[in-house]
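Deviations from the work plan: none for this task. Representative record:
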Amino acid sequence: MIDVDISGQLGSFQINAAFQNSGGVSALFGPSGSGKTSLVRMICGLDTPSAGTIRLGDATVFDSARSINLPTHKRRLGVVFQEPRLFPQMNVEANLRFSRWAHREHSSQKFSDVLELLGISHLLSRSPRDLSGGEKQRVAIGRALLSDPAVLIMDEPLSSLDGARKAEILPYLGRLKSETKLPILYVSHSLSEIEQLADHLVLLQQGRTVASGPLTKMLSAHDLLPEEGASGEGSLLVGTVSGFDEEWSLTSVDVEGQTLLLPDLKVTKDARLRLHINARDVVIAKERPLDISLRNAFQVRIANIRQISDANVIVTCVLGEQSLKARLTRHAVHALGLSAGQQVWAMVKSAALPKEFAV
Amino acid sequence: MSDFLTPAEWEALRLSLKIASLALAISLPPALLLGYVLARYRFWGHSALNALAHLPLVLPPVVTGYVLLILFGKQGALGMFFEQYLGITFAFRWTGAALAAGVMAFPLILRPIRLAFEAVDSKLEEAARTLGTSPLKTFFLVSIPLAAPGILSGAVLGFAKALGEFGATITFVANIPGQTRSLSLALYTEMQSIDGEQAVTRLVIISIVVAVTALLASEFLARYVAARVRGQYD
């Protein structure tokens, strides 16, 4: 587990953080300059908080009241930094096996499992300088996993990569998540990465953890804006696969008791899916239209309407525990007479749905 | 080789190499330690320590030799300590010549090493510590290999300086054949004698050959080491 409750000063910056993770992926989310990296450095023992406790796995690594402050090399951490930080004078295999110098042994079975998981078996004798950015970061992840960590900390591991490289690594992270039992702290300012990977979300603002909780709840309770250049504001729906229609090649997904149809996707029944739905792909209707090609219609309640520009608004709708955002023109809201509390239909074009990711 | 050299020349050459090797062995470890400390840590007295380490470079060599004589001579506090407890005598011995050469070479060894450590990305050292290696192991596994080109050039510079050291050596341990008479001191002796012109020429040529050989060898080694550190080792 990861249990952090610390305060500290770094330069003129005050950190005040408290959160727990007893398994799964906790995302630490905050804008640039919110203190994410400072917090990570304190957890890793690279900087010292002024007060509080840090527990990693079953060890207390920092406790100001009991004067405990384990140095970095005695904390059982696996850290993946923004940059791969591979040792240039060693080949990939020597990098992966580096922790043996610290007597952190791993079985040959684990070694080959990690190579297989990350798809890096063919790189062993290569020099880090001959690897692509994505390959380097995969080796860095493998090196951290092989150091026998009690927790895995990933500090914006994709932020130094371009879009294509990110897309190359994300599936590996998904597999890592489902195959490892390690609690993972995933630091990011990218909402789309978090939506794909995290189970819990910790919100960090100006050095303070302002809220934390299960991902979907947090996403519906807070208006988190995506980073610039992303596909735009949207919402995350989590559902369970309820069936597959062979004739029309449609997968049905149960979301809060209502059904969403997805084209083509073939996944096992009862698999959990998470779907990012762009606000601009959502249409609102007061009555359910019948002669229309749109198949996916949810009965929802309008929670609030927020103006984002002179012409546009974001309508946040609630379905069960989750929320769905629609981007409409102010004119449409006026013409339909939409207001908070109303029951309406929210519709999503199946073809507009993105690639999905298993939870 | 002894076919080409007179016994005296051969002795001076062997002595020079021996003195320079010991001088390097004496000053390299403290230079590594101090170079790392100066590169990585900021503390009270940082500049003073740096200045002190560079003193032999700016002081007249005779002064350095004299200070060594006071400290490490037969009557010197440190000299008596080494003689009594460790059985090491510096005064008028080749070990003393090595000590003088090592002290004179120290700033020249220190500077490239310090610059090399400053250029080592401390993020890599941090990464090693998160992988479980203690600061000391990290120093040997990451910092030293990455600073190797700078360490090598410091060592070469220091070796060359020690090979040719004259002023501090002759002040501290005098000019004793077979004990402290290195190439430079032999050259100086021959220049004092009336008919030493031919001997001087021979010694100058020997000195040049030794220097050029050392330079070429270090250049070759430096390229190899630099390539390794960059990760080119195919």
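The domain at 7-230 of chain B is CATH 1.10.3720.10 (MetI-like fold).
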